[in-house]
Design brief:
Number of strands: 8
Structural class: alpha+beta
Number of domains: 1
Helix content: 40-55%
CATH class: Alpha Beta
Amino acid sequence: MFNHVELAEVFEVEAVTEDGTRTYPTPKGNYPSVTTVIGKNPEKMAGIMRWRQRVGEEKANKVSKRATSRGNDFHLFAEHYLKNNHPTAEDLTAAPLPAMMFGAAVPILNNINNIYLQEAVLYSDLLKIAGRVDCIAEYNGVLSIIDFKTSAERKRRKYIYDYFVQEQAYACMFYEMYGLAPKQLVTIIACEDLDIQVEIEKPCKEYYIKLQEYIAHYYKNYAGTTGG
């Protein structure tokens, strides 16, 4: 059984998506999601464009749809498991590949305990961003931002850099809202060959500076047209 830590007050609001931009209504205005902010950086957008041109639009759309479905199912299985509600046999049968990936990840998920938040909205008035964090809990006894990802295969380190930037953002928002400072950024990547990749970093100035760069670029180039 996973232990859940009760926080005094948990903020909850539904995101609004318009023209591909997700924003969250907060007490001081609509803030863009951190995934939108990171996704709008020129290098990432150019990389995606080059990939789509290389493989073709039809294949790119199929790959993206498959990845989204796989990721959603895996997240749902992990979320229920950590809430002490195991996925049903019917749920697992309906999504066989994500179910097998989840099964392979269970020993890793068992390193998580004392869960503070799951699929919860965080925001920062200082950074003017928001987002929905997968999990904030202790990982091997250390308070951590925990992010669940899926992939066709194991990812090279350079391709997961922005995952840590995103997790850094959640660490900042969590500290601003609750006064608790996570000590680890944990990325758990479930791969289709059932390999489970776990990458751990500490929150640091480098990721914070990169986050600020992404935020500045977003607000300069997109906020005026999206209402973010």
